[in-house]
Structures are given as C-alpha cells and as structure tokens.
Amino acid sequence: MNTFLTGIDHIQIAAPPGSEDAARLFYSELLGMEEIPKPENLAGRGGCWFLCGSQEVHIGIQKDFMPAKKAHPGFTVNSLRQLKSRLEEADYEISEEPPIEGRSRFFTHDPFGNRIEFLAFE
Q1: Domain boundary assignment for the chain
Q2: Which of 10, 104, 113, 12 has the alpha carbon at shortest distance from 56?
Q3: Do residues 119 and 103 lie in contact, with contact meaning Cβ atoms separated by under 8 Å?
Q4: pLDDT at position 35, please?
Q5: Which helix H or strand E contains 59, and what residues bound it?
Q6: Calpha distance 93→114 (Å, rounded)
Q7: Which among 70, 83, 104, 117 could bridge 74 via Cys, Cβ 3.0 to 4.6 Å?
Q8: Is residue 48 a contact partner of residue 26, using CB atoms and an 8 Å limit?
C-alpha cells in the first residue's frame, strides 16, 4: 500500500471579519505561538498565521462565520496546569475532560467560540 501523506503542514481555524487583533492576543500572547507573515498574495484576505512547533495555525477570516463547536485542534503542551491557570486568569472557561490513556487534557474556546483542546503526555 502506498502512503501518500507525510504529516500535517497546517490547520485552519475560522474567525469573523475584523478579528485579527483578538486572534493575536489569544494565539500569540496567551498561547505563545509566534506570528509568521502571510504570503503577499494571500495577505489581502485578512487573518493571520502562527507557528506551532513545525506546523502552522492559520486563522482564516470567514464572512458568514459560525464557530466550530465539535471539530477542534488538539495542541500538545509542556505544562497543562500552567496553561490552564493562564487561561483562567484571562477569563477563559475551562472544560475538564477525562484523560485519554497517557494524556491529560482540557478544552476551552478561542475568542470566537471555536473549541480548542490542550493535551499533555504523562
């Protein structure tokens, strides 16, 4: 069997028009992702891109935006407890979830209502 896929280059998370500053605050300031420049030919569409490890997180502007309530990215972190405290201090609601074998986790929502999961390997 041929394997064509070799990994994930990026994920895209939708956001409403005019939300770039809120995205930067959440994804860069709170989560610590580095913002990277969008290619010149895509910059006019709005949104912003971030680096997460060797993958990218693209915040794409969607005119008729509806937050993702079930679908979500799962980000691995090196200190789940510290991130949870940081998000709580910034008034983000945390949803505790049962661990998955070998991984502790919790959920929150980004400023636009998209579901986001954070996991730490035990």
Answers
A1: 10-121
A2: 10
A3: yes
A4: 98
A5: strand 55-61
A6: 12
A7: 117
A8: no
Residue 107: both structure tokens together? 């959920």
Q: pTM of the prediction? A: 0.93
Residue with tokens 């945390």: 94
Distance separating alpha carbons of residues 44 and 12, to the nearest angstrom: 17
Q: Helices (H), strands (E): how many in the chain?
A: 2, 8
Per-residue pLDDT of the chain (122 residues; tens, 9 = 90+): 778 898 999 999 999 999 999 999 999 999 999 999 999 999 999 999 999 999 999 999 999 999 999 999 999 999 999 999 999 999 999 999 899 999 999 999 999 999 999 999 98
- Single-letter residue type at 61: I
Please give the backbone phi and psi of residue 20, each rounded to the nearest 5 degrees, phi first.
-60, -40
